[in-house]
Amino acid sequence: MIWRRRNVMAAATALLAGGARRAAAQGGPPSLPPAGGAERTPITTLHGRSLPFVMKGGVKEFHLVAGEFTQDFAPGFKVKVWGYNGISPGPTIEAIEGDRVRILVTNKLPEATSVHWHGVLLPSGMDGVSGLSAPRIKPGETYAYEFTLRQHGTQMYHPHGDEMLQIGLGMMGMFVIHPRDPEEGGVDRDFVWMAHAWKIDPGTSRPNPAEMTDFNIWSLNGRIFPATAPMVVRTGQRVRIRVGNLSMVEHPMHLHGHHFELSGTDGGPIPPERRWRMASVQVPVGTTRDIEFVADNPGDWAYHCHKSHHTMNAMSHNFPNLVGVDQGEAADEIGRLVPGYMAMGSTGMAGMESMAGMMPGPRNTIPMMGGAGPYGALGMGGMFTTLKVRDQLAHYDDPGWYHAPPGTTAWRVDHKTA
Amino acid sequence: MIWRRRNVMAAATALLAGGARRAAAQGGPPSLPPAGGAERTPITTLHGRSLPFVMKGGVKEFHLVAGEFTQDFAPGFKVKVWGYNGISPGPTIEAIEGDRVRILVTNKLPEATSVHWHGVLLPSGMDGVSGLSAPRIKPGETYAYEFTLRQHGTQMYHPHGDEMLQIGLGMMGMFVIHPRDPEEGGVDRDFVWMAHAWKIDPGTSRPNPAEMTDFNIWSLNGRIFPATAPMVVRTGQRVRIRVGNLSMVEHPMHLHGHHFELSGTDGGPIPPERRWRMASVQVPVGTTRDIEFVADNPGDWAYHCHKSHHTMNAMSHNFPNLVGVDQGEAADEIGRLVPGYMAMGSTGMAGMESMAGMMPGPRNTIPMMGGAGPYGALGMGGMFTTLKVRDQLAHYDDPGWYHAPPGTTAWRVDHKTA
Amino acid sequence: MIWRRRNVMAAATALLAGGARRAAAQGGPPSLPPAGGAERTPITTLHGRSLPFVMKGGVKEFHLVAGEFTQDFAPGFKVKVWGYNGISPGPTIEAIEGDRVRILVTNKLPEATSVHWHGVLLPSGMDGVSGLSAPRIKPGETYAYEFTLRQHGTQMYHPHGDEMLQIGLGMMGMFVIHPRDPEEGGVDRDFVWMAHAWKIDPGTSRPNPAEMTDFNIWSLNGRIFPATAPMVVRTGQRVRIRVGNLSMVEHPMHLHGHHFELSGTDGGPIPPERRWRMASVQVPVGTTRDIEFVADNPGDWAYHCHKSHHTMNAMSHNFPNLVGVDQGEAADEIGRLVPGYMAMGSTGMAGMESMAGMMPGPRNTIPMMGGAGPYGALGMGGMFTTLKVRDQLAHYDDPGWYHAPPGTTAWRVDHKTA
């Protein structure tokens, strides 16, 4: 189970740095992630993990292996991607300001690659621009990048050379550098997400990296809703969410129920006295954005890209516009001619969520909307997940749906009173 | 007449809160909008209005009715949209920090809907995410949302579920919460605009919500230039413009003749000491942006999205590129084959503005550029209007064109002197 | 040679303002750009130049001539553009806060035009909006715009009317106003770039201004990599880069090896205590963004738009997706049917860089990637150039490739050690 594995990883990762001092200060129950004496809150990479390292003569040595593999973007929807260590985005690299790190990169792809450490201050020869900084890593080769971290913040890694194809196929990862001072910028929960856009024609499994604008699959950490995991936090916790975007499109990430501060970019933290409060943060391409807030509002809160097509899955773009049109048998007729054809509903599209499984759609794709909530269909897809804020939590596994206190849920009223 | 009706609405809206104290302090003429003792400057929603409310046991009760109707985006250009209370964007909800509000929503659409209060801090069950927060509002039903406002700033409302279709067809509105302290953040004029993008094939009247990138109609408050009303202010007034964007595309809104401060987001005001000055403000999707400035420069000033295709109306994208080509009779020939075909001018497109009415174009659309100014054709369309700054104003109706003082207008010079 | 000519221009431009006081204070070698007593660092417009002026009765008189001409975007790739004084973007206008400027504009285009001074505070009649501010400049006419500069910062100029076509074809330029106080905001190197997007079908030379989203050529100052010149600076120098964007697309400009502060917009400088540090800066459409940093990291550093398709040249979008497919003779077969067809490599696209000259592609275009670095092919194109930081510099001509100190370049390791 993804979640359990993640917790194991979190525990392992926690060895990185120290103790549950902060968690303890919050008076949290002892069954919360152990953190084994860690002094820094480890990064939570839902659907992913942090990259392990070994110490070699004072250097933290990591190992990335670039390769091709199949990843489940959602149950029944398999995509052939390029990534690192079997996942796309690749594992999160976590280190501490001041660390000397060595990152081995083995290329198991059919073409040459390189790794650029986006936003990391390092020597020119370690910068990973193919041909400019160093030779490319040919298939089968392993290269070593080594540098001392003299900053902290939210960086990324990705190839630099033939990027349209390699990044387009999924080669990317987050690189989080914790501050030297464990007191600085501390939070109780620290999530990373990479937002990506793909063009995967229904019925196929291989993204088309030549696509520049007309994407149809929108993922968070390589999953699409309803297969995305929720962020689970306890009421009162200070939360950071770090988002990286290496797609071709800006993603305005919107959080419900809370305002937050924009607290960092790929150039590091924004000093508190310069920050702006927002409810949505635009994440431009080729950047990271950190946000911070206190989760003071219990409930199930949507967290999603606010471009309405980005919370849809495939099959949403090539519909003829039939709103207001009685389609009669036309849809069936067209369907015989055009494989995978589904007509947009004549009364709107809200009926689409329940179609999955009821009609033979194209193989290996996913309905454009999905997800069942406590009150029925959600009608969302793609870059959508939830923040679940609970007063009581025994662990960070999905606690199920929120039970709103009586009188705090929208209610149906007798029409005459309206 | 739109403007007169707006003023009546403004007067009514002013009852919301108090007096013309601020206007009086500015020494304005008594014929300026009465404001009937209001202490807060009411919002001006050009082409729209603020939503009335009734007090019921200490609660401000508003009523939104979602439905389908036809709206004139410009004279002769009718569009079948979905909106609230007969307009798209729907009426602006105005309330005051600390208010308890109840908003009834009646669904007269053919499919279920919900209303999410974007950026408003409220209980989870009132958040309006279909299926997650509460059941959807089925056709014919009325739901009540009720919450206490514990913030101020510029928020929005829109459906949350089947958003691609429902927002795409026009379901959206602004939700402005005034500060509890009437002294805080006060301005003399306070405008709201919603920027939206539509795909309406020439000759049709129903927007295509499946379109993701190739839009062709760009509106401000549901109107397109030259049918957009100007913002009229008196020299020296402090002005706020609040813009919401729920389209699929970023809109960089540019104001001529003034610099302004970015003063707020959907997370509320930015403290004055953190603001940046700008001449254009990017309004990302799914956010709001407030700007503030003193209108210290008399004149007629363009205010528009700076993407050059967004100040065009329909019919601008499918032209063959004939710049520099003598088209002879080819255009007529092609026109016989392709309904609605217009060739791009061989010397450019500036001749297009005067074509309206001179040639039989497709029905129910609008030339791609239009608007006649004091010095001839403007060559603009779409997301374009003006800020009219005047030293003397008897009212806020359109004062006509600006008469520039002698010597302050660009002049034609004898070529030999050049 | 472009570089030499630029230096002559820089010297000429330096007469604008004074002395090499600042350069001297840095202890730079005497062979650095003379600056002839200039007190302000002149703007460096790579591939372009600053517009000369003559003093007439206390007024700085400039002269722009709008026209059509052919420009080499790269060797062998000629594009028919519209611009000013024979270049697109047009010459950079440099002036000083407090200056009275008169700008003559002669129209040698086949259609009427105007010039709007984006972000410049001036009288309404000088604002250059066709039809609104003043009459349009008809072909053959010359107009004068005159105003006093009461601000400083990074502005732009461009037509306002039929903008989709005129800006789309290249009519734009930067307008830099230096502070009155030469001590304010001083830097040692001050670069301007205009980022633009074009649709130029392979084999043609005329951009298609009707294109709204599917661009295929991405330029910096009218050049595309590998034909873009590097920015050359000495270690320790304070550097400003000003970028203007009048294309249809946001460009996130990323600098390697350094963090920078976002120091200005089209509304002028951002006060130091309000700035954010970044490694990439989003440059929205219709705005300018200034960044500042100390070049403290010697090396060859990529500087580029981070949208991966924007560092590609033409021919990248219409490929069938053949990754993982053995194409055998199919590509040749298709090539006979589709002129200019190139199949995407079955192992990726990295082999594409070396194809230039090896196969008969369409005439008048450029391979989608190119550029040879010290370690082989770069695999980049379009909006890409470098910042070259050197401890020792005799002049600002391209110093060639960086020689990294031993032990600071990524190295190939024996696979068994990995």
Q: Assembly state here?
A: homotrimer
Query: pLDDT under 50 segments of chain A (min length 5)?
Result: 1-37, 337-344, 351-360
Beta-strand portion of chain A reads 25-35%
By DSSP (H or I, 4+ residues per run), the number of helices of chain A equals 4
CATH topology call of chain A:
Immunoglobulin-like
- Indicate the CATH class of chain A: Mainly Beta
Distance between the termini of chain A: 48 Å
CATH A-level architecture of chain A: Sandwich
What structural class is derived from the secondary structure elements of chain A?
mainly beta
Whole-number total of structural domains of chain A: 1
Describe this structure in words.
Three copies of one chain form a homotrimer. Chain A has a single domain (2-305), classed as Immunoglobulin-like, CATH 2.60.40. In chain A, a hairpin with a 2-residue loop joins strand 2 (59-74) and strand 3 (77-84). Chain A contains four helices and 24 strands. In chain A, strands 10, 11, 13, 15, 16, 17 and 19 form a seven-stranded mixed β-sheet that branches. The first copy, chain A, is mainly beta. Chains in contact: A-B, A-C, B-C. At the A-B interface, strand 17, strand 20, strand 21, strand 22 and strand 24 of A face strand 7 and helix 3 of B.
Give a nutshell description of this structure.
Three copies of one chain form a homotrimer. Chain A is built from four helices and 24 strands.
